[in-house]
Design brief:
The chain is mainly alpha-helical and 241 residues long. It is built from twelve helices and no strands. It starts with 12 loop residues before the first helix and ends in an 8-residue tail after the last helix. 38% of the residues are buried.
Length: 241
C-alpha cells in the first residue's frame, strides 16, 4: 500500500487544495452511490428526519419515519398533535421527549412565520428548535440544492487526519474544508467523507490498508496497514450486509 509523502515542511496552500480535491475525486470513484442516507420526499420530512438522527443511526430513523410522515403530513399537523402521539412513534430513536419538543417547536414557527414551509436560507433554519448548522446544511444541500459542508464526527475526524485542518470546532472545520473544495462539491463531498468515515476510516482503528486515498493521507499507518486484514475491517454500507 503506497504511503502519503511526509515532509518536515507543511504543504503549501496550493498543494493542500490540490490534494483535498484529489481525495474528493478518489472518494467519488469509491462511493459512486453516495447520497443522503435519510429517506425523505419533502424538505419538511428531511428536516424532521435530521432532527431525529441526533444520537441515532440513519437506519433506525428510516424505520420510524414512514409511520411518522404518514401520520403528520405537514407542519400544522405536528404543531397541533398530542406530544404523546409523536413520542410513541419516535421512541426508538432515543431522546424522544426532547426531539418531540424540538419537532413541535419548529413546526409552530414554520406554521406561524413561513406559511408552513421549510425556508431555504441558513439564517432562517438555524433559529428553529433543534436545528444547528449541521442540520441546516443537510436540509439546504439535499432538499434545496444549496451547497453546504455537513460536519459530523466522521467528517471532522477525516478532515484532521487528512491534514486539511487542526480545528475541532465544527464551524471552523466547515469553513476550513469549504476553502479547499469547490463550492459545487460541498454537499456530495460531505456524503463521501461521512461514508468513508463510517466504513473505512474508523475512529479507533482505521482500515488504512483498504483505504482508496491512502497515498494522499498524511495519517496513513495509524491503523491496520495489511491489505487483507484491513479489508476485513471495512464495514458494509446499507443493503450490503
Amino acid at each position: 500500500m503506497p504511503r502519503a509523502r511526509r515532509s518536515a515542511e507543511p504543504p503549501s496552500r496550493l498543494a493542500l487544495v490540490r490534494r483535498a480535491r484529489a481525495v474528493n475525486r478518489r472518494l467519488a470513484e469509491a462511493y459512486p452511490d453516495a447520497r443522503c442516507e435519510l429517506d425523505f420526499s419533502t424538505p419538511l420530512e428531511l428536516l424532521v428526519a435530521t432532527v431525529l438522527s441526533a444520537q441515532c443511526t440513519d437506519v433506525r430513523v428510516n424505520q420510524v419515519t414512514p409511520e411518522l410522515f404518514a401520520r403528520f403530513p405537514d407542519a400544522a399537523a405536528y404543531a397541533e398533535a398530542n406530544p404523546e402521539e409523536i413520542e410513541e412513534i419516535i421512541r426508538p430513536t432515543g431522546f424522544f421527549r426532547a426531539k418531540t419538543k424540538s419537532i413541535q417547536g419548529l413546526a409552530r414557527i414554520l406554521t406561524e412565520k413561513h406559511g408552513g414551509q421549510v425556508p431555504g436560507r441558513l439564517e432562517d433554519l438555524v433559529v428553529l428548535p433543534g436545528v444547528g448548522r449541521k442540520t441546516a446544511n443537510v436540509v439546504l444541500g439535499n432538499a434545496f440544492g444549496v451547497p453546504g459542508i455537513t460536519v459530523d464526527t466522521h467528517l471532522g475526524r477525516l478532515a484532521r487526519r487528512l491534514g486539511w485542518t487542526t480545528e475541532t470546532d465544527p464551524v471552523k472545520v466547515e469553513h476550513a474544508v469549504g476553502e479547499l473544495l469547490e463550492r459545487s462539491e460541498w454537499t456530495m463531498a460531505s456524503h463521501r467523507l461521512v461514508i468513508h468515515g463510517r466504513r473505512v476510516c474508523h475512529a479507533r482503528r482505521p482500515a488504512c490498508g483498504a483505504c482508496p486515498v491512502a497515498d494522499l493521507c498524511p495519517s496513513f499507518g495509524i491503523g491496520e496497514t495489511d491489505p487483507e486484514k484491513a479489508t476485513a475491517m471495512v464495514r458494509p454500507g446499507p443493503g450490503q450486509g
